[in-house]
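Q: A reviewer asked whether we had any structural model of the full assembly, not just the individual parts. We don't, so I'm hoping you can provide one. Inputs are below.
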Amino acid sequence: MIARRVVPMAIAIVAGLVMAVSYFVRSIEWMGEAAADVFNVIAAIAFVLGAGSLLKANLSAISRRDRGWGYAAVTLAAFLITLVVGMAKIGVNPSPDAPQAAWSGSQQTAGTPFGWIYEFILSPLTATMFALLAFYVASAAFRAFRAKNTAAVLLLVTAFVVLLGRTYAGVVLTDWMPAWASGLRLENLSSYVMAVFGTAGNRAIMIGIALGVAATGLRILLGLDRSWLGGGGSA
Amino acid sequence: MSVLDRLDRLDRRWIFLAMFVAVAAPILYIGVTGRTLPEKVTSTSRAVYEAIEATPEGSRVLFAFDFDPASAGELQPMATDLMRHCAARKLRIVCIALWPLGNNLAEETIANVIGADFPHMRDGVDFVNLGFQSGQQQVMTVLTTNFRKGFPVDERGRDTADLPILQGVKTVADFPLLVDVGAGYPGAKEWVQYVVTGLKGSMRMVAGTTGVSTPQLFPYYPDQLAGILAGIKGAAEYEMLVNEGLGGAPAAKYMEAQRRMGPQLSGHLLLVGLIVLGNVIHFRRSRGGQA
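A: Here is a predicted structure for the entire assembly that you could use as a starting point for your response.
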């Protein structure tokens, strides 16, 4: 009970109070910095835990021959190759500042095997994944973006204004409008929608989130919310 | 089977093909002809340009690369233009990254801009890359009290205490300008919340972000954020201003944002067309009692 609930709660309360108070009181800023250091150490340990978890999950999938276990094998191979190439600094030349030290160079330098993995595998793969969105958005827009009710019509009109206003099409279509009606030009209308309606909505959401975060933070600091310990339960 | 039925059951691979052609055709056309579309500059993009212009020559600029290759298609052109503008204005550039792959993009940008076009700038004196630091907003918080603690060494392993460019820098407040090119968390929003707001105006910040994350930043403009580059359109507008300001015929790499507005135009037009077509089918079928 003490190890599983009281100690974690005490750590959370002390760390939370230190971070909050040190933000306002200059003389104890160092305590906030110390808490940040501890956070960084824990984050580094979490990387190791994450790697262990990834190994365990994928090795289990391979050994059980789960459906799609081949993907698990590819994930593991990619992880282990990148880890070894990066940590062992394979193919990295020593830094010009310390030529006598074999491992002094940066593994991220272009032309090294680690740099090669970044430039020719990771970079194109992540860019491709992101670019695929355009194709799926187009398909979804065709099938699902229907003016079925008033709210959907408003959404549709706004989408047209922003889609056209964010390109040269907006200028071509509405540049003929006289100066007194320039606010109705698509590029101006698009900016207006984003700056006024978008900002108003975002401010409302942000204020709501901030109040929620403050309330939850206070409940954790006071020990009233213990749901984060697992097993549910709040006072 | 009627035309409407056929369209309604259209295999989505035809839509994928249409999007491919819509994007590829202008890329080829612009690549061959070099012609780009003119942009009307919005106030947020002009504000970024003016904030950098207003920064005194020789000032230090903190340049945060908070994105990765997934969003480089939209953000890399603005990072390139921002660095070129800062270098041309003779500002001293200190690059950092709070995203692991941001460091690689910082290295690439430095090589493409400073290495290629500003060879007189000295590493460690006129510019430096401090590399990636893990910890997200914790790093930002540390920078507000002790800059060296956040980045004790630079990307090349040199002690930041020995770097001439960082002489006199105690906290992040010693930078008059922060430039953030960010794709999400941690990014511009966190810089505003954890750093800029607390400094109460002693540091100005401009941000370049992806189109989808821009609306979250508008509430901070123009108080906490002096300017925003909103997606590739914002980048194209800013690029036009920088090219006009610096004069001469810009190299292709300094036209990238404007070149990408061509595919954006045709992609958006296709989207509008598909939405209209989808709704025509919907209404015709509704009237026919088939909805």
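A: Points you may want to mention in the reply: The mean pLDDT of chain B is 92. Chain B has two domains: 3-35+262-287, 43-254.
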